Amino acid sequence: MKDFKLYTITGEEFHPNRDLVTVMEQAILGGSDIIQLRDKTNSKKVVFEKAKQLRELTKKYGVTFIVNDHIDVALAVDADGIHIGQDDLPIEEARKIVGENKIIGLSTHAIEEAREAERAGADYIGVGPIFHTKSKVDVVDPVTTDYIRQVVQEITIPFVAIGGIKLHNVDQVLEAGAARICAISEIVGAEDVQSVCQQFIEKINQKVKL
Ligand code: TZP
Ligand code: MG
């Protein structure tokens, strides 16, 4: 897959008065190079409509587009890939559906899950939640930056750190060895989304030579 630095996931509850596409466009203009549509509440029909809009937006800017959970929606809009969790289809089964040319990302919370993701052919893994987060229900306890250090030691596929990452604590995440950062609330809930993304990118570029 095309490498990336700053992964923005949608979280419309954090910008009730602003339009989804506008907010995500600001994230892209600020340097976010991968976007995920994550919608755990609306119907598939509504998710599909949003996915179509975000596919158009990301295509315009040449940014990678991932759909969370809905493999059928991802295929219908020709997204670049899907992101799934530990309770979703096994990677091998998802691969049969999406084929070799789509990206499959998997959330992991422990090194055993990361090893299994790599073995099963995930293209990247999410590593988290690093810190406490209110953006995910039923979330496991924070894995801390210790888990990043384990993944750096052992895992060869790309990983992105997620969960409670803010401008004020991202340095700890980068120092632990993460090269790719993902956030929801800090980015999409910001007054100036573009500026927050620019500041994340600056910090990533300072610490990391990809
Ligand atoms: N997976 C692990 S933590 C998380 C997800 C989707 C939520 C991240 O949101 P935030 O607002 O950046 O903490
Ligand atoms: Mg899922």
From TrEMBL:
<dbReference type="GO" id="GO:0004789">
    <property type="term" value="F:thiamine-phosphate diphosphorylase activity"/>
</dbReference>
<feature type="binding site">
    <location>
        <begin position="184"/>
        <end position="185"/>
    </location>
    <ligand>
        <name>2-[(2R,5Z)-2-carboxy-4-methylthiazol-5(2H)-ylidene]ethyl phosphate</name>
    </ligand>
</feature>
<dbReference type="InterPro" id="IPR022998">
    <property type="entry name" value="ThiamineP_synth_TenI"/>
</dbReference>
<feature type="binding site">
    <location>
        <position position="88"/>
    </location>
    <ligand>
        <name>Mg(2+)</name>
    </ligand>
</feature>
<feature type="binding site">
    <location>
        <begin position="133"/>
        <end position="135"/>
    </location>
    <ligand>
        <name>2-[(2R,5Z)-2-carboxy-4-methylthiazol-5(2H)-ylidene]ethyl phosphate</name>
    </ligand>
</feature>
<comment type="pathway">
    <text>Cofactor biosynthesis; thiamine diphosphate biosynthesis; thiamine phosphate from 4-amino-2-methyl-5-diphosphomethylpyrimidine and 4-methyl-5-(2-phosphoethyl)-thiazole: step 1/1.</text>
</comment>
<keyword id="KW-0460">Magnesium</keyword>
<feature type="binding site">
    <location>
        <position position="164"/>
    </location>
    <ligand>
        <name>2-[(2R,5Z)-2-carboxy-4-methylthiazol-5(2H)-ylidene]ethyl phosphate</name>
    </ligand>
</feature>
<dbReference type="Pfam" id="PF02581">
    <property type="entry name" value="TMP-TENI"/>
</dbReference>
<feature type="binding site">
    <location>
        <begin position="36"/>
        <end position="40"/>
    </location>
    <ligand>
        <name>4-amino-2-methyl-5-(diphosphooxymethyl)pyrimidine</name>
    </ligand>
</feature>
<dbReference type="InterPro" id="IPR036206">
    <property type="entry name" value="ThiamineP_synth_sf"/>
</dbReference>
<feature type="binding site">
    <location>
        <position position="107"/>
    </location>
    <ligand>
        <name>4-amino-2-methyl-5-(diphosphooxymethyl)pyrimidine</name>
    </ligand>
</feature>
<feature type="domain" description="Thiamine phosphate synthase/TenI">
    <location>
        <begin position="6"/>
        <end position="187"/>
    </location>
</feature>
<dbReference type="InterPro" id="IPR013785">
    <property type="entry name" value="Aldolase_TIM"/>
</dbReference>
<comment type="function">
    <text>Condenses 4-methyl-5-(beta-hydroxyethyl)thiazole monophosphate (THZ-P) and 2-methyl-4-amino-5-hydroxymethyl pyrimidine pyrophosphate (HMP-PP) to form thiamine monophosphate (TMP).</text>
</comment>
<feature type="binding site">
    <location>
        <position position="136"/>
    </location>
    <ligand>
        <name>4-amino-2-methyl-5-(diphosphooxymethyl)pyrimidine</name>
    </ligand>
</feature>
<keyword id="KW-0808">Transferase</keyword>
<keyword id="KW-0784">Thiamine biosynthesis</keyword>
<keyword id="KW-0479">Metal-binding</keyword>
<comment type="similarity">
    <text>Belongs to the thiamine-phosphate synthase family.</text>
</comment>
<dbReference type="InterPro" id="IPR034291">
    <property type="entry name" value="TMP_synthase"/>
</dbReference>
<protein>
    <recommendedName>
        <fullName>Thiamine-phosphate synthase</fullName>
        <ecNumber>2.5.1.3</ecNumber>
    </recommendedName>
</protein>
<feature type="binding site">
    <location>
        <position position="69"/>
    </location>
    <ligand>
        <name>Mg(2+)</name>
    </ligand>
</feature>
<feature type="binding site">
    <location>
        <position position="68"/>
    </location>
    <ligand>
        <name>4-amino-2-methyl-5-(diphosphooxymethyl)pyrimidine</name>
    </ligand>
</feature>
